[in-house]
């Protein structure tokens, strides 16, 4: 089963999104947005940014 983005309204009335894996586990979440449309655009931005993104190790 594929993952999905969920857009929801938090307790303070702001809109957020979370990315859930196929097993239902939350694997990423977004910041608070003023509008539902902005939260949906945040989902699209994550999709665009992750397409073909590489995984790199960062050492401290």
From TrEMBL:
Residues 10-57 form the DUF1508 domain. Pfam families: DUF1508. It comes from the Bacteria. PANTHER family: PTHR40606, UPF0339 PROTEIN YEGP. This is DUF1508 domain-containing protein. It comes from Trebonia kvetii.
